[in-house]
Amino acid sequence: MHSTAITTPQFLVGNTPLVELKGLTSNPNIRIFGKLEYYNLTGSVKSRAASNILETARQERLIQRGSVILDASSGNTGIAYAALAAVHGYQLKLCLPSNANAERKAMLKAYGAECIFTSPLEGSDGAIREAQRLAKENPDWFYCDQYSNEANWKAHYQGTGPEIWQQTGGAVTHFFSSLGTSGTFVGTSKYLQEISANNVKCFAVQPDSPFHGLEGMKHMASALVPAIYEPDLAFEHLEAPTEESIELMNHVARTQGLLIGPSCAAALFAALEYAEKVESGTFVVIFPDSGERYLSDGHLWLEQDSWSGV
Predict the structure, then answer these.
(1) Pair 79, 44: CB distance under 8 Å
(2) Which end of the chain has less neighbouring CB within 10 Å, N or C?
(3) Domain span holding position 108
(4) Per residue in 179-233, pLDDT tens?
């Protein structure tokens, strides 16, 4: 067996593929690429942040085998923590909205995470508040705090950004990322703007309403704003509607052969809308996770392709 075939789970993070999407815009001078983050360990972009948060804490001797780690998550980061905790022998306590879907709950159970369910009416903000309360009551636990931990965005500054630059041969002109913790947007944007001397335009995408159905995304004006969020990095702030994003998610599955999640489709919707305003460009859109994680959410999957464009 060749040594290149041998690895360990924590190294199955990063180096995700970039694929070109065809036929979504009529402008032949615009190329649109999706960065398929569901090729990471546990199937989402959140493995990058979770891995860097835990590895940084280990290097700083804040945690060791047997340590209790705590955080809040809407699902994907929690799943990444759970897998990495299994590898390194940490005890994970995760605050999670009780309306997290069946796939997330099943994966967390499989990895052995202890879930502390919070009110579905408060969403991820309620989970954050509960994690903050528990952290104060248990100072011996390591509170990962993905929303404030700089190791979150640094994972993307060190990984996602350089990968995009290399994979496009430095040709990327526009970068689009949906907002949750904002780590993906912040870290990747910092790198791309730095290496391109601010020639890459970076776009932060969020739901167009506080009452939305775009799993994992934050409507910043009505939510607890992550401490790591840097809105000034955005060339422009864009919004995506829930219904049209879900229609696009279905359209991508039926025309591109890619099963993507709602937050992927939201960022892609914003990119396609912006494509109507420019003559040319190489667009890169982050696809945080796979649609496979939403198959139990039957309302997301339409019987017919109803996408009519932007």
Answers:
(1) yes
(2) N
(3) 46-143
(4) 999 999 999 999 999 999 999 999 999 999 998 988 889 999 998 899 999 999 9
